[in-house]
């Protein structure tokens, strides 16, 4: 044997038994095919099929009951009711009940559909060769025929109990969304048209919690006020101050352009709502030289020397003015409520 022959790799030896399978190609594998089809219990036992049918119908029925429960909870539970639920702690009774009932309604529809597909619909596997995206007319016809056959095998037309309860569940679930629209309706009544201000109510400085007097408001200053009797530690404070918050500004009487503003003022002291008429942000940026006040949210600008009319920005109308005067003790008081709703516009606003 030559030296070059000694360095060649030796061929594998098959002398010790066993045949080596032939290699079909570098990346080719034999098609294993589909395993033998195993019939489900429901395919061969009609009693099991009926049991599955009743289970699916029960899930759809439970979905309908949950939707009805959702509507009932929305009507029964007040917004401010708090309950203790382990392990979540103290939660809103309304939010918890709405989430629980709506979640159960949707889950039961999904669970019923999945159980239907797994136990009663046809589960035979069919292999088909890949074809071009644009199918031939024969293929399209075959697809439609297969769809019709699948619908037939699903038992949709034959199993009326499942079909009817599914339709009932699907028909009731959208009512949850319709009921939620109740909050967009005119349920507040006239609450948006009235605040805590009334004739004789003293203006309280929000910084000092003391009655405001004319001498406490120098020319060019900006002060925030709230109605007498409203305190920050009260449960209703946030709800009421959102409508009753005031800006108190003192102008030179000759600088006031609007006649009604001048008549409703006291010695140049004017009181306007602090709530922006765009989306309800609190206004707090005042420019003394121009008498303009700016909303920090979307830059709506109001001229406080001209009836607080809008001179820039998305706000739709002027800030409401509160008519004020002084009482016998020399404190600033309101002579009534706002004559128009404060804050953003709404469709019933006059």
Topology, element by element:
Blueprint: H1 3-7, H2 41-44, H3 46-76, E1 82-85, E2 89-92, H4 93-119, H5 137-153, H6 160-172, H7 174-180, E3 199-205, E4 222-227, H8 237-244, E5 246-250, H9 259-264, E6 269-273, E7 285-287, E8 292-294, E9 301-303, E10 309-312, E11 321-322, E12 324-326, E13 332-335
Antiparallel strand pairs: 1-2, 3-4, 3-13, 4-5, 5-6, 6-11, 7-8, 8-9, 9-10, 12-13
Structure description:
With 350 residues, the chain is an alpha+beta fold. It has 2 domains: 42-123 and 137-184; 191-335, 3-layer Sandwich (Rieske Iron-sulfur Protein). 34% of the residues lie in helices and 15% in strands. The protein is built from 9 helices and 13 strands. The chain has helices at residues 3-7, 41-44, 46-76, 93-119, 137-153, 160-172, 174-180, 237-244, 259-264; strands at 82-85, 89-92, 199-205, 222-227, 246-250, 269-273, 285-287, 292-294, 301-303, 309-312, 321-322, 324-326, 332-335. The strands form 3 sheets. The protein has a 7-stranded antiparallel β-sheet with strand order 11-6-5-4-3-13-12. A 4-stranded antiparallel β-sheet has the order 7-8-9-10, with no helix packed on it. The longest helix is centred in the N-terminal third of the chain and has 31 residues, at 46-76. The radius of gyration is 38 Å and the shape is elongated. The model is unreliable at 1-6 and 8-18 (pLDDT under 50).
């Amino acid at each position: 044997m030559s030296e070059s022959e000694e360095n060649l790799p030796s061929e594998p030896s098959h002398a010790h038994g066993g045949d080596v399978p032939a290699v079909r190609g570098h990346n080719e594998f034999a098609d294993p095919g589909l395993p033998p089809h195993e019939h489900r219990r429901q395919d061969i036992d009609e009693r099991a099929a009926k049991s599955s049918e009743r289970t699916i119908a029960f899930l759809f029925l439970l979905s309908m009951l949950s939707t009805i429960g959702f509507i009932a909870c929305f009507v029964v539970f007040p917004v401010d009711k708090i309950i203790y639920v382990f392990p979540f702690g103290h939660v809103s009774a309304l939010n918890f009940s709405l989430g629980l009932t709506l979640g159960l309604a949707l889950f039961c529809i999904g669970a019923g559909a999945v159980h239907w597909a797994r136990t009663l619909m046809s589960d035979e596997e069919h292999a088909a060769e890949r074809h071009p995206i644009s199918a031939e007319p024969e293929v399209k016809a075959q697809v439609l025929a297969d769809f019709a056959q699948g619908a037939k095998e699903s038992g949709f037309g034959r199993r009326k109990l499942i079909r009817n309860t599914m339709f009932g569940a699907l028909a009731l679930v959208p009512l949850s969304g319709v009921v939620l629209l109740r909050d967009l309706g005119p349920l507040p009544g006239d609450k948006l048209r009235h605040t805590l201000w009334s004739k004789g109510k003293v203006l309280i400085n929000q910084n000092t919690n003391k009655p405001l007097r004319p001498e406490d408001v120098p020319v060019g200053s900006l002060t925030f006020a709230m109605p007498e009797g409203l305190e920050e530690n009260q449960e209703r404070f946030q709800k009421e101050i959102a409508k009753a918050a005031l800006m108190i500004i003192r102008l030179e009487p000759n600088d006031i352009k609007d006649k009604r503003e001048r008549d409703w003022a006291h010695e140049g002291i004017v009181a306007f709502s602090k709530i922006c008429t765009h989306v309800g942000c609190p206004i707090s940026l005042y420019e003394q030289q121009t008498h303009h006040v700016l909303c920090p949210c979307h830059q709506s600008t109001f001229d406080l020397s001209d009836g607080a009319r809008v001179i820039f920005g998305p706000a739709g109308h002027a800030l409401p003015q509160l008519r004020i005067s002084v009482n016998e003790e020399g404190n600033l008081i309101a002579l009534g409520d706002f004559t128009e709703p404060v804050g953003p516009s709404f469709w019933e606003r006059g």
